[in-house]
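FW: tagging you since you asked about this chain on Friday. Here's the raw sequence from the shared folder, copied in full. Didn't touch anything.
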Amino acid sequence: MRVWPVSAINQREFMPSMLHTLVAVFAICMFNPIPDIFGETADVQSESQSILKQAADEMQVEMSLGQLAAQRASNQQVQEFGLHMAEDHKKVGQQIQLLALQQGITLSSDHRDEQRNNLDKKLEKLSTLSGHAFDREYMDYSIRDHEIAIEQFRQRAGIVQNQGVKQWILLVLPILEHHREQAHRVKYSLQTNP
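HL: got it, structure written out here
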């Protein structure tokens, strides 16, 4: 095998092949998302961020409403349930913050105004009620909200590509399902013991 000196390479033949290589590399970069520092694509990172932001907002709403129920409910079981919701959702919110930190995800307040507006509406509606009316409305809300959250978490678990977020969702799902069962039991006790 003969080794050619660099000066012997025909530059006219070399330049087109180098140009083809550069065009190919550019095309690959344009049509494939660039991985981030965690080895995920920007789309996966964005998806994870969206899921965690929404979950953090949901946990904040549940925590605030649980605190309200612990203070305003007339039924002891509803008070205890509200306190339990506030504590559990606070813990889940802390898990979200930790997971976001581990995943390099920023949970900014992009849609905090919308979330705050929804919370204010729910708090305003519940604040106008008292006694058994408050207890029933809070328990109805809690059942509806947990059913929606469970369905959303199941859907997210099926589509999320980030394995850390997926594992977290699968760990939180049984907690939400347990909350829904507790809410049904408390609501049933309200109906049997007005």
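FW: The chain is about 80% helix and 0% strand.
HL: agreed, and Residues 42-72 form the longest helix (31 residues).
FW: great, closing this out.
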